[in-house]
Amino acid sequence: MNPNKPAPEPGEDPIRAHVFDGIAEYDRRLPNWWLMTLYGGIVFAIIYWMATQHFNRSTDETRLAAELQRIEAEKIASSATALDTATLWKMSRNPVFVNAGRATYQSTCASCHGAALTGGIGPSLVDAVWLHGDSPDNVLTSVNEGVLTKGMPAWGPVFGGKKISEVVAFILSNHAAP
Amino acid sequence: MANGPASNSKIDERSAGHSSPGIRQSLSPRPNRDAVTTIREDGSRLFLHPADVRGRFTTARRWSGWLLIMIYLALPWIPVGGHPAVFLDIAGRRFHLFGFTLAFQDTWLMFFGITGLGFSLFFITALLGRVWCGWACPQTVFLEHVYRRVERWLEGDAVARRRLDAAPWSAAKVLRRGGKQTIFFVISAVIAHLFLAYYVSVPELWSMMSAAPGTHWASFVFVFVFTGILYFNFAWFREQLCIVICPYGRLQSVLIDDHSLVIGYDTPRGEPRGKAGMPGAGACVDCNRCVQVCPTGIDIRQGLQIECIGCSACIDACDEVMDKMKRPRGLVRYDSMTAFAGGRTRWVRARILVYAGLLAVGAIVAAWALSTVRPANLGITRLTGAPYFVTAEAVRNQFLVRLVNKRDTPARFVITLPDAPAALVRTGLEGTVELAPLAEDVRTLILQIPRARYAGTFELTVHVTDEARTFSLEKTLRFVGPDPELLKEDGK
Amino acid sequence: MSDRKITLEYNDRIVRQFLLASVLWGAVGMLVGVIVASQLNYWRLNFDLPWLTFGRLRPLHTNAVIFAFVGNMMFAGVYYSTQRLVKARLASDFLSSLHFWGWQLIIVAAAITLPLGFSRGKEYAELIWPINIAVAFIWVVFAVNFFWTLKRRHEPALYVAIWFYIATIITVAMLYIVNHLSIPTSILHSYPVFGGVQDALVQWWYGHNAVAFFLTTPILGIMYYFVPKAAERPVYSYRLSVIHFWSLVFVYIWAGPHHLLNTSLPGWLQGLGMTFSLMLWAPSWGGMLNGLLTLRGAWHKLRTDPVLKFFAAAVTFYGMATFEGPLLSIKSVNALGHYTDWIIGHVHAGALGWNGFMAAGMIYWLLPRLWNKPLHSQSLANWHFWLGTVGILFYVAAMWTSGITQGLMLNATTDNGTVLAYPNFIETLNAIKPMMLFRVFGGGLYLIGWLLLTYNLYRTLRGARPVNGSVEVFVTGRPAEERLGFGSMVFNPPVMFSVLGTIFACAWMFGGDLLRLAGLLGTALCVMLAWVHFSTRISRWAAWYERLLVNALPFTILTFIAVAAGGLIQIIPTTLVNRAENIEGRRAVPYTPLELAGRDLFVREGCYNCHSQMIRTLVPDVLRYGDYSRLGESIYDYPFQWGSKRTGPDLAREGGKYPNVWHYRHMENPRDVSPGSNMPNYPWLFTQKTDVTSLASKLAVQRILGVPYPDYTDGELTETVENQEKEIAADLRAAGAYVAPDREIVALIAYLQKLGKYETVKKEKKKEVASSE
């Protein structure tokens, strides 16, 4: 900075000699910070490109797959361990799961299958007749994916793994374990 | 094309006038109408150091600024009805506003907030010019009343600050500058954290701050980036935001008319400028105080300009000089352009009336919209799959009812079908449905009608209230089934 | 040649014609916009008439405001300013008139065909092929007229506005022609030559740059002429206009894939779309800065001059829209905002704020000059401005609220992110319904403002006499040394550094290990050398550019190279690579003839205006709609129907989700099966017969395009169609709904039930038919 240099008059502005239909043009420098946003954008693009295309093996697809696996794991984890037949039977003897399942059942399932599980619009869940397989994992599948042609909707997307497994545990609690 | 080392061409080395005789006010800008003061001719930034100013507007602005800052700081802390006064709980999908709780389904009410703010800005600007910019905008409030105060405290007045700018790097300068930047960064971090508190509540913020960043990456990165942006903005970018980036400042400029209040210079009274006692001189003594105090680097005497944020510093500066000169105040003042030209300001004009009318209509609609908000929400969809089922006895429709309790207490809902045909058999949602505080639940509703009584599609109403009947909600459903003629044919 | 003085009279008649047409079509286009917005709120407003449904009127709205309103406004502005900037009368009165009447005829043809359902099914490119040819022809007429005028200019140097006009003319021609390449099946119908991902890429290369080179560059040119004229101020910075022009035209063209973020578009293209969009921010703001700081010197006139008010607000909205655009191009922001009303709000901030206000400012400035009579009422013009700003505020606020609300609700999950909080799409739609009403209000205010302009124009013109501008020019021979030959056009530092730098950068981006390293070093070296050379030889760079400015043809060629680069690099690899390898392990099962007929109905009714067919690689999308879409699943889609907006749910895996009777009832009255839906009824699908006769020629074209259809005889074709029709009709009958098998609804159901069916392609090339659900 040189405070001793006399200030130029406004008339000394860098104006271009040529005039188009009365329009003159100054030739001012661009604000440096504006130029920095341009350069910054380019630098970001280079870094982003290297990070996503050159030095990264993960793609949207692999990230999505990983996230879906996490969700799957979460579902399994929240519905006890692995949902095999034995586990479901074990859950059906545990009042923690059974009571939680009863609450969900009464608010959602009872309207078709009856408050006492004896059936109504839907089939009875206490008799020995199983329309879609009698093993606990068949029951789980029916609740999860539904039987659309009969009007039984897929409850998996509505309730998630935890509630579904509790409901199955509650239903099984009305049956004798093998 | 290149213009050589003209980087300091906007420098005024004339000494200041009457307010501080003897002190060289070098390096203060000399604005003109053809170029932006804060962008030097080489494109670099001219960093402004506005001089101190005292006066009634400055005092009033400081009070109002601190009040606004206090409100900002306090809102997430003050409990109203069991929640912070403002708690926008995105994760829990509930918005708590001054004891009022809204669910995600009510987010559309945000529209009234946005348009209300926007429209008030239109209205106030038409009346009072850019008072928002000068008095209430967070940019101005934090910059003028927090960051610049810190700068003033650590580095001294404008002259000292310029001297420090020009001084070579020394241990003392490093200490001062480093200290200032550190404090700036800390303040930015505090503002950013508090901003997050509006979305996660203070206790949650505290627990996040005490935990490792890895447990809440999204929030951590957000606060980090937001702190960085605030720091960059308030420590360096400052008035450039108002001049170049901010659209509201420009929109306000175009919303001003001849009768809107603006900060202006009384040209007939002030011109020609000259020292006191000079024959024929106007009231302006050309002391340049108004330029020295301007935070955006303009000369108010050149008329309305894009940079002017209406901060009123130049009014106080000029009044101070006029007081010393024993001349009436108001050479620079709040007034309309009409009044500056010698006319009379018309406060009430068609545009103001229309704006006021629209604002009133907006307020009424907003009030009505808010009054439709119930302490519960009702949503009905069909169960996925076929639209209807035909059994040997009946036609059946299946619905899923979503109930939201927005109260802090458990609610017991009563669901009725007031206009359903007598033959309709309903299962599900009988008796009362109990929901925990702020809970949301989905229930099935199964409707059946005997085949013999089925005569085609009909509509019915689902009505929800609570046991005490404190509210009522309704939704209309369509009960559908097969073509009744075909059904009869099938039955044969 | 010796100097002599002549007086030129400008052809301002053509300017007046285009200006009046713009005002008229603007009103029509905005009115249709208000109607379609109302229909979103009150589905009954189509009165059960096919030609009034949203799916057919929305293309009419977009085409009308883009091509009729802004198009005519642009032609008026270009013709007015070009004549004055180059000091020459338009080259040919005949071409000018042909341009005007041809363009109006195209608009009328569009206004008739679009409501009748004649559509190519691609956004902003819906017009059928005979009209496409007319558009291309008239555009060439425009180009010839413009460049011929440049050739006859008496002003040697080209002003910055002309640069933007040149970029507009050549780029729009390139975009339009490539995106409209089709093979006709009849006089009114054609299939595009690109399908699936290629069609998507070409479409958004076109769609994005229609915004860039139809709604932005010509208007920037108009800004560079009319803003300094109206403000009576010099332009703020010449060198800013140089930098922002070249960076804008070069960068803009690459950003198209940002319309396809998180879709099955290959990752490298998405990366280019996102990064170039972010790089576009600074060039766009360069234009805003130049406009704004030019206006700065006249800021005190804003209060009184409605023209300057409109310009200042327009430049501001341009700045807002070009800030929001890069923001929305960030993949994570896009995941929230895409397919929602946020995008609609973004577009309208640009369209209403930038285009509409630039048009208004220009018209108010031109009226007194073209008709030699002061504007009837400044105060009405001010009212127009105030109503317009309030209208934009309402509109944009409604769309932001709506978009963000719906985006948050669609993405909301519970139980540690394993279950959607609102699994049914309709719940999110119900939450934003009030916004659909407020947007009508905002748009209505804006329309009223425009009608004030129309009235003001009418009063100004009444009794006014049109007047043509004129200028005195000296005719001189141009010195030969100013001519720029091919050699000096190419072999000079700015061009060589740019070309080499781009080539090296491409080698770095796309090359293998060694090439990548070489590319990186080369790019770095290029940038450094260019920097050093520029700093030391700045006057030579400047002098060369000054020479370029007096040479229109070299300027045009260089501009074309700059705009063509991005498209070539993005599109050629995607169209040329073996399609069979680029399908991500899945291949669509070709549509049966009946399903194809149903698909053409889907296109006819404009279903893509509200329904996407693209499940993105995002968790909420997958939880809601099923497995994400693979490239191969749309390989036989001519045109692609990935969509750009979800007013209703995605349909990519709709097939098999519901029984046939659900679709039957849904098309009859969507509220029967979807309480709260705002979709219109489609009663005519139940009475009109499926067009089977045209299927033979359609299949023939599809075979040419590479869809493996057997060579049906007429009898076989009819039998195949009828069998499938009967099967569906029988299923409907069993569920209690009767319809004659030959009705359109049956074909449409056939198509909808097919969506999402694919075969898995294993490496051994074994095929295994599977379905998504």
> Mean pLDDT of chain B, as a whole number?
87
- Order of strands across the widest beta sheet of chain C? 7-8-9
Structural class estimated from helices and strands of chain B:
alpha+beta
Shape of chain B: elongated
Spatial gap, N to C terminus of chain B: 96 Å
The counted number of beta strands of chain B is 18
Radius of gyration of chain C: 27 Å
Structure description:
- The complex is a heterotrimer of chains A (178), B (492) and C (773).
- Chain A has 178 residues and is mainly alpha-helical.
- Chain A is 54% helix and 0% strand.
- Chain A is built from six helices and no strands.
- The N terminus of chain A is likely disordered.
- Chain B has two domains: 373 residues, no CATH class; 116 residues, Immunoglobulins (Immunoglobulin-like, Sandwich), CATH 2.60.40.
- Chain C is mostly helical and 773 residues long.
- Chain C is built from 27 helices and nine strands.
- Chain C has a three-stranded antiparallel β-sheet with strand order 7-8-9, with no helix packed on it. Chain C has a two-stranded antiparallel sheet with strand order 1-6.
- The C terminus of chain C is likely disordered.
- Chains in contact: A-B, A-C, B-C.
- The interface between B and C is large, with 64 and 73 residues.
Give the topology, please.
The complex is a heterotrimer of chains A (178), B (492) and C (773).
Chain A: H1 32-54, H2 60-78, H3 85-92, H4 95-113, H5 136-145, H6 156-172
Helix pairs in contact in A: 3-6, 4-6, 5-6
Chain B: E1 11-12, E2 28-29, H1 56-74, E3 79-80, E4 83-84, E5 86-89, E6 94-97, E7 100-103, H2 110-128, H3 131-136, H4 138-155, H5 158-166, H6 171-200, H7 202-210, H8 217-237, H9 239-245, H10 247-255, E8 261-265, H11 267-270, H12 289-292, H13 313-324, E9 332-336, H14 337-340, H15 350-371, E10 376-382, E11 389-390, E12 394-405, E13 411-416, E14 425-427, E15 432-435, E16 440-450, E17 458-466, E18 472-479, H16 484-491
Antiparallel strand pairs in B: 1-2, 3-4, 5-6, 6-7, 8-9, 10-12, 11-12, 12-16, 13-15, 13-17, 14-16, 17-18
Helix pairs in contact in B: 1-4, 2-15, 4-6, 6-7, 6-8
Chain C: E1 4-9, H1 13-41, H2 54-86, H3 93-113, H4 129-151, H5 160-179, E2 182-186, E3 189-192, H6 196-214, H7 217-231, H8 238-252, H9 267-279, H10 281-296, H11 306-328, H12 331-337, H13 341-371, H14 378-411, E4 413-414, E5 419-420, H15 425-461, E6 470-475, H16 486-490, H17 493-510, H18 513-536, H19 538-549, H20 552-576, E7 586-588, H21 593-604, H22 619-625, H23 660-668, H24 670-673, H25 695-705, H26 714-734, H27 744-754, E8 757-761, E9 767-771
